[in-house]
Write a structure and sequence with these properties.
By secondary structure, this protein is α/β, with parallel strands linked by helices. It contains seven helices and eleven strands.
Length: about 230
Amino acid sequence: MSNALDLYAKVEDLLGVNEVTPILNEYYYETLEGLEFKTLLDVGCGSGGFLANVEIKHPHVKAMGLDLSPVMVENSRAKGLDVHCIDLCKLEGKFDVITAIFDMVNYLDEKQFRRFFRCVEERLESGGYFIFDINTLYAFKIIAAGSFIKDDEDRFVTIDSDYEEELGEYYMDFTLFERDGECFRKSQDSITQYFHTVNRIKKLTNLKLVSQKGISIYSHEIEKYYLVFKKKK
């Protein structure tokens, strides 16, 4: 998976991610403004844009990030952020808030999701919050499915994607050509995401769902659910 994530890290700016994440991040910033917290962990922090803004908006907070892509971790550390390439379940310590932004949990199948939620619960302080977003079925079937071609002077990427409804799985096949002198170097990999319903998620955890919002970015239909879970004191 890390190789696929590294490949994605090389092309995410071509995919419009940098235009979408600020819109999505505002939901997180608004929630955080209403919370009292001293520590925050961002799981799947990517290139660290969210963490960097948390440090600006909440300078008193000790913020840390995790990502399984060494490329993403390197990009985050270049911003001076405290980011580590480690599995959440192997991390020590507890946090007041844990976040997982931009459908990070959709990369987990149900077995992985159960393990992930258990580790989130163990690393949350009593009364702490787990905040994340998930893709809706509409996002997988209508918004994300299809073939895309993006390029700039030094890169050319093609993406073929589809949603397999019987399995509840969304597939993305990447092919990247990167300029290397007078030639181009080819890389290929794939990423799978999994559809999860809010009701199903509620049954997988002992955390309590305290807030649910539908988000529309590309259309008038709900494409994501923004969820806030809380650990009992």
